[in-house]
Amino acid sequence: MPKVNVLHIDAFSSIPEKGNPAGVVLDGDNYTEEQMAAIASIVGFNETAFVVSSDVADFRIRYFTPGHEMNLCGHATMGTVFALKRSGLLDQSDFTIETKAGVLPVHMGEKNNQLRITMQQAKPVFESFSGSRSDVAALIGLQEEELHPEYPIVYGSTGIWTLIVPVKKLASFSNMIPLTKQFPSVLNEMPTASIHPICFEVRDEESNMHARHFSSPFSGTVEDAVTGTASGVMGAYYKLFVNREMKMPKTLVVEQGHEMNKDGRVYVHVTEVEQLEIAISGTAVYVKDILIEMD
After folding, report:
1. What is the CATH T-level fold of the domain 4-120+282-292, as seen in this structure?
2. Contact (CB, 8 A) for 20 and 264
3. pLDDT digit string, tens, across residues 151-161
4. pLDDT in tens, 177-200
5. 9: which DSSP letter?
6. Alpha-carbon distance 35 to 39, whole Å?
7. By the 8 A CB rule, do 255 and 204 touch?
């Protein structure tokens, strides 16, 4: 097999080596599922995306962690769209992508002289967490009293399930150490879910929320720098549990990645007509080509 060309794109930032790195393979139809999994494992990013043909959308994206395939990934979608645009393979501003979370509309535009990519998320859903608050706190290296007493710990999804854990103080975030292998023993309802601590105390004046994201032990990674789908969940969580009277449409700004020196920003667009709808947007930047030799 010839060498595989993987584009390294950093999403949710316009500065290389900030934001969240994604691998993008533009000629995904050339590889089997097993080869895609192997490529993603070699690249080692939290997600590597493969562009493949689709019968129901403009194109399909398949997302692989080093450990398994994912239904949807926000930052890898941003990286893929940016890579297609940069390579001259995508001209239209509005198009659809097929994912395992459904067919989703995407829009490309410019804001402040930067390409801004907006993708619709799957409909937000939440499920109760019935476990121990102290056990959840311990999973991320905190004490129970550091958790926010007013807001619930819940599972949420706009395409991928994560456990939203509200934390009182921003200072707690730099002390977090995930006990990744122990996640399934506490997350009894959804043992494969990730954990997403959030906070309403922020670093940047224009932000609404701060976050970190700790991966499921089955994904082969430990932490995600800036997480698109989980930021989408945060937008729905904010409306349903924090500020029910929030006027809409509303754009919330999520900051993430600072503790990894990968700070980035996700814009979460919350609307409600007949039901709550979530979209996310952000920027991306090319970093380099990665050439992989396959056996």
Report:
1. Diaminopimelate Epimerase; Chain A, domain 1 (3.10.310)
2. yes
3. 999 999 998 99
4. 999 999 999 999 999 999 999 999
5. E
6. 6
7. yes
Is the domain defined by 125-281 classed in CATH 3.10.310.10? yes
- DSSP secondary structure of 36-91: HHHHHHHH-SS-EEEEE--SSSSEEEEEE-SSSEES--HHHHHHHHHHHHHTT---
Q: What is the DSSP letter of 241?
A: I
Structure tokens at 276: 């709550």
| Residue whose entry in the numeric block shows the structure tokens 């080869």 | 35
**Rounded Cα distance, 291 and 277, in Å:** 39
Active site residue 146: no
Left, alpha or beta for 85 (phi > 0: left; psi -120 to 50: alpha)? alpha
Query: Which residue out of 17, 33, 34, 47 is catalytically annotated?
Result: 47
Could you please report the per-residue DSSP string of 252-295?
EEEEE-GGGT--EEEEEEEEESSSEEEEEEE-EEEEEEEEE---
Question: Amino acid identity, residue 196?
Answer: H
